[in-house]
Amino acid sequence: MNPGVNEFSSAIGAAISMIVTLDPGLVEIVLLSLRISLSAVIIASIVALPLGALIALQPFPGRRGVVVLLNALMGLPPVVVGLMVYLLLSRAGPLGPMGLLFTPTAMIIAQSIIVFPIIAALSRQTIADLHEEYDEHLRSIGCTPMQSVLTLLRDGRYRLLTGIMAGFGRAIAEVGAVLIVGGNILHSTRVMTTTIALETSKGNLALALGLGLILVVLALSVNGTALVISDAAQRRYG
Amino acid sequence: MANGAHPAEKREYPELATANDHPLLPLVARQLRFDINGCQIIRNISFWIGSSGRTVILGPNGAGKTVLLRLCHGLIHPTDGELRWGDLSVAEARAQQAMVPQRPVLLRRSVAGNVQHVLGVKRVPRKQRQDLVAAALEQAGLTSLASRPARTLSGGQQQRLAIARACVLRPAVLLLDEPTTNLDPGAVREVEEMIRAVGAAGTKILMTTHDIAQARRLASDVMFLNDRRLLEHASAAEFFSSPKDEVAARFLDGELLD
């Protein structure tokens, strides 16, 4: 056997044993990743869900343009978002005095921006589709605008949830933005993706592989759960 | 003023002019027109419906039946002409009406949840809701399916749920658009029985159909629509025994109208 393969297989073994024994260094990184991405998704959702519903239900001049823009922003490159947030937060930037650069807060800000258009666009689509279907019935029974919105949000809740989960999947797997505004500082801003990106080149293969495994499992299970939820909702409510 | 205001319409259909104390009658349409993109969908229709029985709008597909019904419910607004329910405008009258479209929209909720939703929207006190839901499902024969997702019901069951949901608060008028299209004979019978029961309980029925046999079974008066015009409005007995309009006579003979 050649030495490269040998090194690789021993790294896998070390990675698995780190996961099984809950290596403190690895656990710290995983928890920070989850904290940052979950915070970003929650913050983005609080603004994006009502905004998506508003765009879906309230006609205004230029609405089509906003919808196109929102859909296009779903493909926003994280590296560019990282750069923008970096410029905002860097010492010479407008928000420089707050001293947020290279903190988890900066990473949450960056990921919120990345995730926001995804959740807003998907929730707009969900509410718009449902509204088209329900509108006549809701008008016929005399719903107030508020009652209509509540009905649509309630009946669209499973599809809205899958939109939120799509946002989380994107945030947890993103590396460009958190690397630029976080800086991969040990015990402070080191998350799964940045560790994999930087530790591999330093030869710390076991940690990178272990985190990679966890990341894959997380991404798969988030997507799988989203699928199961929408599938179950489809079967249950049609 | 409701009954005395339109002598012309009244003279036209004297046998239908039975006065009653129904809050939304007579339904009066004068020179009603509806265009979409310059294309006439309804051409200058006038009528006067005074009886509280079952009025059936009969005619082939594309005659304008659905549009007329939607105009009456105020979901769309006439390009020209006037429509009034008793002393009320169409918009004011809607609160006392319910409509079941050809393909009813059932919410992504349980059977009972669909009825509860209407009660919530109409701000019925919570403690009364349960009894009303139970009564509505009983009427529709869906009591045993109360917790089933509404959209998993069969076509006939969905239609019965839609009618029960529409009637849960005893509307003054129930508008039905082709209520039994695509249903098998057994389901048609069940839906028609429900419509009869709702009408017998005092709700004015205004429904469309292209099915002559159904019109015979249900109508107390018939409005015959063809090619965007109202060609005849008469009591069922008169319409089916001796239609005055030549096109209506051909339609009743089973001819395919062009």
The major beta sheet of chain A can be summarized as: none
CATH superfamily of chain A: MetI-like
Please count the helical segments of chain B: 10
CATH class group of chain A: Mainly Alpha
Written overview of the protein:
The complex is a heterodimer of chains A (238) and B (258). Chain A is mostly helical and 238 residues long. Chain A has 10 helices and no strands. Chain A has one domain: Orthogonal Bundle (MetI-like fold), CATH 1.10.3720.10. Chain A is globular and about 70 Å long. By secondary structure, chain B is of the alpha/beta class. Chain B has a single domain (7-252), classed as P-loop containing nucleotide triphosphate hydrolases (Rossmann fold, 3-Layer(aba) Sandwich), CATH 3.40.50. Helix content of chain B is 36%, strand content 24%. Chain B is built from 10 helices and 10 strands. Chain B has a 6-stranded mixed beta sheet with strand order 6-7-8-3-9-10, with helices on both faces. In chain B, a hairpin with a 2-residue loop joins β4 and β5. In chain B, α4 packs parallel to α6, α5 (126-140) crosses α6 and α6 (155-167) runs parallel beside α7. The N and C termini of chain B lie far apart (41 Å). Classes of the chains: A mainly alpha (238), B alpha/beta (258). The A-B interface holds A 133-134, 136-143, 147, 151, 155, 233, 236-238 and B 73, 75, 94-95, 98-99, 101, 104-109, 117-118, 120-122, 149-152.
Brief digest:
The complex is a heterodimer of chains A (238) and B (258). By secondary structure, chain A is an all-alpha fold.
Key structural traits:
heterodimer; A: 238 residues; mainly alpha; MetI-like fold; 10 helices; B: 258 residues; alpha/beta; Rossmann fold; six-stranded mixed β-sheet; four-stranded antiparallel β-sheet; 10 strands; disordered N terminus
